[in-house]
Specification:
The complex is a heterotrimer. By secondary structure, chain A is an alpha/beta fold. Chain A has ten helices and ten strands. In chain A, the strands form two sheets. Chain A has a six-stranded mixed sheet with strand order 6-7-8-3-9-10, with helices on both faces. In chain A, helix 3 (about 100-115) crosses helix 4. The longest helix of chain A is centred in the C-terminal third of the chain and has 18 residues, at about 175-195. Chain A is globular, with a radius of gyration of 20 Å. Chain B has nine helices and no strands. Chain B has one domain (about 35-255). By secondary structure, chain B is mainly alpha-helical. By secondary structure, chain C is an alpha/beta fold. Chain C has two domains: about 1-30; about 35-145, no CATH class. Chain C has an eight-stranded mixed sheet with strand order 7-1-4-3-2-6-5-8, with no helix packed on it. In chain C, a hairpin with a 4-residue loop joins strand 3 (about 65-75) and strand 4 (about 80-85). The chains are: A alpha/beta, B mainly alpha, C alpha/beta. At the B-C interface, helix 2, helix 6, helix 7 and helix 8 of B face helix 1 of C. The structure holds adenosine-5'-triphosphate and magnesium ion (MG).
């Protein structure tokens, strides 16, 4: 396990549960500054939850989440909001504001956090929309967008303020191969040119292996593997091989925790 | 037995917690004053949605209720030979009771349920979370303007309701049933007191606006973010808001007119 | 442009509310804006005011000329003291005018009827009606009627 020279997010002994189900048990995760870190794992293991914990929307039961030395769960309201101005988050569902146009959606964070003039805002918004290929869709309302388009607009909004940390929750889902390629390039370029720290949650193994600098594989409330893409590819552990090669049978459970299948079927209801 | 007590305690605690949350929402959104330049357009937009768009239903209901009052009042009062008192009866019942109460009930059904559904849907589609991540408090941005709008709109709507209702009553009484116009109005003017009746009715409307909006906003903010959750919350808004309006109306009436 | 239309709509809405309130105030509750300026006050003592209340009408020959503003008990005379506002236009109530408490219809509301006397001098602000007639109380009437029957 390597140590990074410069850690921006340092998660220590994190525990979190939903009801009786533990989502995380004493997990340690470090996110290196200025790199692309991927979080992977089976559906329902808590990847989105992890991003929400980092954003301070959920509070862990125990453990700390340090961003630049500040412990997120213990920040006051104002400090937390200041911290969030440095983060951009692409929600899994896009979460565009449905009552304002695409343009206004992307302009929103700029209007909140900057005093830029109207022309400057316009330039920035068009730049960001151009980057995701949707400059022409600026006057549409979110309800007029397709799922993939909405996600790209949401991405443009997440990076509108050029935040230090960008969290992408499944940016590639619902994109055609061309858009996918563009997005992969965009994320890489933002990261290399502007030095963003990026956290990507994704199931698209090939794309993720291609752009990530470091990968965490999460399953069963813990980190089951961590390393660079090369290390992951050559990992011998069965769990990792199963996930990376997408095999249905193996030690990683495909099923949500449940009673034995046969017993369940035979049980009289 | 112990199980029962425990369950009762749990329910009680949960209700208390919900009430606390409602209080926090209220405080946060009333104290929260984003720059007026930000707040003003948001409030205007909400007044448009909950006020201007409710106008038609308010005017139509007011008109018909006023006309019915005129008709009913006439048939009762004509037996005592005091049909001039129709104006007084219509005006007093509208201004004191019917305008604030019926407006509040219609408002709960039309605007309150829409508020709940809108906020609930924003929660379900993660728009509220997304606001939080952008560093904006949804209470200030989403809840507060809706609050102020409800607060402003209900008295305005109730006043319009009163006026339209009285005009409807006058139409039926004077033009249709042939009550002498002068005594219709002078009777009304003699018995309706501005401070005692009109202002008290207005105060009722303000209180109802406050309560209905509070309930609607809270139900939306607190709902389970699924389709069933939202529909349940919408129903709750209408039921709770209507019951609160009727209950509060009794209390307010007792306080305002009870000691005469 | 859509925004502008919306703002105009909201402005009109609020304006409609204010206008409605004004109309309620002026036409429905009969609130006079400059109330005390164009009226003067006169007083009258009555043995019994019956159901007279503040804001009851004061009329002359059935025409409204003012309203009752206050009713007190005069502790010295042990009578009801009624204060009323009379419109300034009606400045020709002679000092020997009489004020009586009348009833509109059999069970209707009470009001004050003024009948002008013959003197050349007129009532001024703060003057008293010398000649007053109390309300007819139905029970008293019935009582008297019965008493007369019995004594005959
Ligand atoms: N609001 C909630 N209330 C209760 N349980 C929840 C809630 N949100 C998520 N969960 C549970 O938490 C677990 C983790 O959810 P999360 O959304 O983090 O999964 P995920 O790893 O992002 O999955 P996916 O890849 O499908 O998006 C899930 O098993 C889910 O059942
Ligand atoms: Mg997820």
């Amino acid at each position: 396990m390597e140590q990074f020279d410069d850690v921006i997010i340092d998660i220590q002994k994190l525990s979190f549960s939903r009801g009786d189900r533990a989502i995380y048990k004493n997990v340690d995760i470090q996110i290196p500054r200025g790199k692309i870190t991927a979080i992977m794992g089976p559906s329902g293991t808590g990847k989105t939850t992890l991003l929400k914990l980092i954003g301070g929307q959920l509070r862990p039961e125990s453990g700390s989440i340090f961003i630049d030395g500040k412990d997120i769960p213990r920040l006051g309201r104002r400090e937390l909001f200041e911290m969030r101005a440095r983060m951009g988050m692409l929600f899994q569902s896009g979460a565009l504001f449905t009552d304002i146009s695409v343009f206004e959606n992307v302009a929103f964070p700029l209007r909140i956090h900057t005093d830029l003039s109207e022309e400057m805002i316009r330039d920035v918004v068009l730049m960001k929309l151009h980057a995701v290929g949707l400059r022409g869709a600026r006057d549409l309302m979110p309800s007029e967008l397709s799922g993939g388009m909405a996600r790209r607009v949401a991405l443009a909004r997440a990076i509108a303020l050029d935040p230090d940390i960008v969290m992408y929750d499944e940016p590639f889902t619902g994109q055609d191969p061309i858009a996918m390629g563009v997005l992969v390039n965009l994320i890489r370029r933002l990261n290399r040119a502007l030095g963003h720290t990026s956290i990507i949650v994704s199931h698209d193994i090939q794309e993720t292996l291609a752009i990530a600098d470091y990968i965490y594989l999460i399953s069963d409330s813990e980190v089951i593997a961590r390393g660079t893409p090369e290390e992951m590819a050559s990992e011998s552990s069965q769990k990792v091989r199963q996930f990376i090669q997408g095999l249905p049978d193996g030690p990683v459970p495909f099923h949500f925790p449940a009673a034995d299948y046969q017993a369940d079927l035979l049980q009289d209801s | 037995m112990i199980e029962l007590v425990a369950r009762l305690g749990r329910t009680g605690l949960r209700k208390l917690e919900a009430f606390g949350l409602a209080g926090i929402i209220l405080m946060q959104s009333l104290i929260a004053r984003p720059a007026p330049t930000v707040m003003f357009p948001l409030v205007v937009k909400q007044i448009h949605f909950v006020g201007v768009l409710s106008l038609i239903i308010i005017v139509v209901s007011g008109l018909f209720i006023g006309m019915v009052l005129g008709l009913q009042g006439y048939t009762i009062l004509v037996d005592y030979g005091s049909e001039q008192a129709v104006g007084q009866m219509v005006a007093l019942s509208l201004v004191r009771e019917l305008a604030p109460v019926v407006t509040a009930l219609l408002f709960a059904g039309r605007a309150g349920s829409a508020l709940t559904a809108e906020i609930g849907l924003m929660k379900a589609t993660e728009q509220l979370s997304s606001l939080e991540m952008i560093g904006v408090d949804p209470l200030r941005r989403i809840i507060a303007p809706r609050f102020w709008a409800g607060f402003i709109c209900l008295p305005v709507l109730a006043t319009i309701f009163s006026l339209v209702g009285i005009l409807g009553g006058a139409f039926v009484g004077i033009d249709w049933l042939g009550i002498y116009e002068g005594s219709f109005w002078s009777n009304m003017q003699n018995s309706v007191d501005f401070r005692e009746d009109v202002l008290n009715g207005l105060i009722k409307a303000v209180v109802f606006g406050f309560v209905v909006t509070w309930i609607a906003v809270f139900q939306g903010y607190d709902c389970v973010p699924t389709s069933e959750g939202i529909s349940e919350a919408t129903t709750k808004t209408v039921v709770y808001a209507s019951l609160s309006v009727l209950g509060l109306d009794f209390i307010l009436t007792a306080l305002m007119f009870g000691d005469i | 442009m859509r925004i502008r239309i919306m703002e105009i709509g909201v402005g009109a809405f609020l304006l409609a509310g204010i206008v409605a309130l004004l109309m309620l105030a002026l036409n429905v509750s009969g609130l006079k804006l400059m109330e005390s300026n164009d009226t003067y006050r006169v007083y009258a003592r009555f043995e019994n005011i019956g159901g007279l209340t503040a804001r009851s009408k004061v009329t002359m020959s059935g025409v409204l000329i003012g309203q009752v503003t206050d009713i007190r008990l005069d502790p010295e005379a042990l009578q009801a003291l009624v204060e009323m506002e009379i419109s300034k236009d009606v400045d020709y109530l002679s000092i020997d005018s009489s004020a009586s408490i009348l009833t509109a219809g059999l069970l209707g509301e009470k009001y004050i009827g003024v009948v002008v006397g013959a003197e050349e001098e007129y009532l001024q602000d703060g003057d008293y009606f010398e000649d007053t007639q109390s309300a007819l109380v139905l029970e008293d009437l019935i009582g008297k009627f019965l008493f007369n029957e019995v004594s005959e």
